[in-house]
Amino acid sequence: MNFLFFKQLHHRPAWLSIAFFFLLATLLAPSSQALAVPIFKDSAKRTISSKKQTVTLSNHSAIPVLGKYRNISQHKKNIGSKQVASKKTGNIRKKISAKSAIIIDAQNGRTLFSRSPDLPRQPASTIKVLTGAIALKSLSANDQVPVSNKAARQPRSKIYLDQRKQYKADDLINAVLMASANDASVALAEKIAGSEKSFAKMMTLRAELWGAKNTVCKTASGLTAKGQTSTARDLAAIFRHAMQDKEFSHRMGKTKTLTTDGNMLRSHNKALWQVEGTEGGKTGYTNAARQTYVGKFKRGNDEIIVAIMGSETMWSDIKHLVEYGFERKIALNKQSQQLLAKVDSDSLSR
Q1: Is 58 among the catalytic positions?
Q2: Can you tell me which residues bind substrate (predicted)?
Q3: How far apart are CA 332 and CA 113, in angstroms?
């Protein structure tokens, strides 16, 4: 069809023009058999079934696909995290002292809030998350771990290991993750890799595999070392992956436990009894790093990871960030529902 055709059509009766355009619209309409377009974007492995209308992620959870049999790409831009404005964003920045901080959605890794999240800093004992996670995969609970002179001489925090004894790996892993024991960290590192230096390379590799590209480990304990660095974003990514291991998350959720020798280990993570929904976390402190923390929190179906570095008021920062993080999740959930309602409304009006 060309311009002349439309010019001629213009001089035909009105009913004929209307009939023509109705026919044209019918021919150009998309087939009802088109594949559904999921509104979820995730780097995880997925399979799409147009019959059942589900997206199956690598963790075997099934998520309903929104926008059944219709393209809603025109609405996607409406759900970006930057679009969810909050009057409290400015307030939260004033309330926390952390030099670097981030809140991510624990389920999909989406950033809910950040302050200089890629600023490299000393991680302090938060890096023990890697030490404990690697040890759990490398050793059996009853494996005997010797104590070298180097391990025994580590500064506090420590559980004062005796060089004349050997200890169960299970007890030392708890000491690392709960009591933040430096001596236990080095003993495990030497047992697994032969030396702390070699183990630190394993830690760096594990961090990279978990998406933490700016983390370099030099010690198993997190004690200040030249060249050792991480970021709030990396700590959040590391902890998100580590908590997917049931054995790791179970230990991180304990407030206290007994060793084989009957000694009590108490968690340094006060958030477990001070902040609603705490599932686990790791504290850290050195003069160079100041206060550091990474933890996971769950309320209802919402899960978030909070990481901070360079704080002077750690527990206050954590409380403020956790509350803000869940407020953001509620806002995002609400906007998702509004988006779905709009898609349904647009579909019915067509």
Answers
A1: no
A2: 282
A3: 12
Is 3.40.710.10 the CATH number for 82-334? Answer: yes
Decide: 157 and 182 in contact? Cβ < 8 Å: yes
What digits encode the pLDDT tens for the residues 329-346?
Answer: 999 988 888 887 777 666
Cβ atoms within 10 Å of 8's Cβ, excluding its own: 9
Q: Which run of H or of E encompasses 297?
A: strand 290-299
Sheet holding 46-49, edge to edge: 46-49, 54-57, 62-64
> What gap in Å lies between CA 81 and CA 41, rounded to an integer?
13
Kindly name the residue from 100, 157, 180, 230 that is annotated as catalytic.
180
Domain regions of the chain by residue span: 32-71, 82-334
pLDDT at position 151 is 99
Q: DSSP of 76-131, one letter per residue?
A: HGGG-GGGS--TTHHHHHHH---SEEEEEETTT--EEEEESTT--B--GGGGHHHH
218 tagged catalytic: no
Side by side, the strands of the sheet bearing 111-115 are 111-115, 100-105, 302-311, 290-299, 278-286
Q: Is 316 an active-site residue?
A: no
- Number of Cβ within 10 Å of residue 75's Cβ equals 16
CA within 13 Å, CB half, 117: 17
- 282 carries a ligand binding annotation: yes
Q: Is the pTM of this model over 0.85?
A: no
Residue 298, both tokens: 């769950």
* pLDDT band per the 50, 70, 90 thresholds, residue 165: very high
The string of pLDDT tens digits covering residues 36-95 is: 323 223 333 333 333 333 333 334 333 332 222 333 333 333 334 443 444 567 799 999
Position 143: which residue type? D
Cβ(139)–Cβ(148) below 8 Å: no
Q: What is the per-residue pLDDT across 95-144, written as a single tens digit (0 to 9) for each?
A: 999 999 999 999 999 999 999 999 999 999 999 999 999 999 999 999 99
Assign 294 to helix, strand or coil.
Answer: strand
